[in-house]
Amino acid sequence: MAGTPLDDVSRLAYLQAMDIDVWVQRTPQVKPGLRQEVAAPQSSLADQWTTLQEQVASCEQCELCATRTQTVFGSGNQQADWMFIGEAPGQSEDEQGLPFVGRAGQLLTEMIRALGFAREQVYIANVLKCRPPGNRDPKADEVTACRAYLQQQIDLVQPKMILAVGRIAAQNLLQSQEPLAKLRGKIHQWGEKPVIVIYHPAYLLRSPLEKRKAWQDLQFALKAFRDK
Ligand code: URA
């Protein structure tokens, strides 16, 4: 009989004989004459991502749409436990349409590796989806205009841990004016999600002596994630 699949009745009998609970999917009982409540069709996650990406790509809610080459939506694992949020695209990102692909991006990839992940395992986005000309700091109205996009990305990914990359991202995410030195080493919140602030890789490229503290921040984030 090897290789012959058991019919359902025999399989159930075997499982019950071995004291294994058997769960059988119930067929919904429809009472005659009663109108069934039909659930409203839910758009799939994939549809929601596509819609959001299209909205961002055609966004004209602030003046950055006039100077961008293209929008930089975000990239990575859409079901990631870890989400990295930077400030805004720079020149390379504006050219390629992807976040953190320049020199700072290479260092961020190394930082992600230091946490034990491949870049593809996490999700990476920015507070702003368009490059501010000359890489100036984001303006308040630009952050406000882009905030709903980021909120929706977070809602879709449902990360277990958010890392705010650098002072500007952290201050905008946390709506704080505190310097990075005060923001790092603490667990903040975005709604119910824990947020940890880390050094921006561009800053670490300029100040390599701070890499030790950056490593401590990553360790702190890992511990916070494991202790949850
Ligand atoms: N710096 C950021 O904050 N984001 C990028 O995508 C690139 C550089």
Kindly describe this structure.
- The chain is an alpha/beta fold and 228 residues long.
- The chain has a single domain (46-227), classed as Uracil-DNA Glycosylase, subunit E (3-Layer(aba) Sandwich).
- Helices cover 41% and strands 11% of the residues.
- It contains 9 helices and 6 strands, in the order ααββααβαβααββαα.
- It has helices at residues 8-17, 45-57, 91-96, 103-114, 140-157, 167-174, 180-183, 201-206, 211-227; strands at residues 75-76, 82-86, 123-126, 161-165, 188-190, 193-198.
- Strands 1-3-2-4-6-5 form a 6-stranded mixed beta sheet, sandwiched between helices.
- Strand 5 and strand 6 (193-198) form a beta hairpin.
- Helix 2 (45-57) runs antiparallel to helix 5 (140-157).
- The N and C termini lie far apart (50 Å).
- The relative contact order is 0.13.
- The model is unreliable at 1-36 (pLDDT under 50).
- The protein binds uracil.
- Uracil binds next to helix 4.
Structure summary:
Helices cover 41% and strands 11% of the residues.
How do the strands and helices of this protein lay out in sequence?
Layout: H1 8-17, H2 45-57, E1 75-76, E2 82-86, H3 91-96, H4 103-114, E3 123-126, H5 140-157, E4 161-165, H6 167-174, H7 180-183, E5 188-190, E6 193-198, H8 201-206, H9 211-227
Parallel strand pairs: 2-3, 2-4, 4-6
Antiparallel strand pairs: 1-3, 5-6
The structure holds uracil.
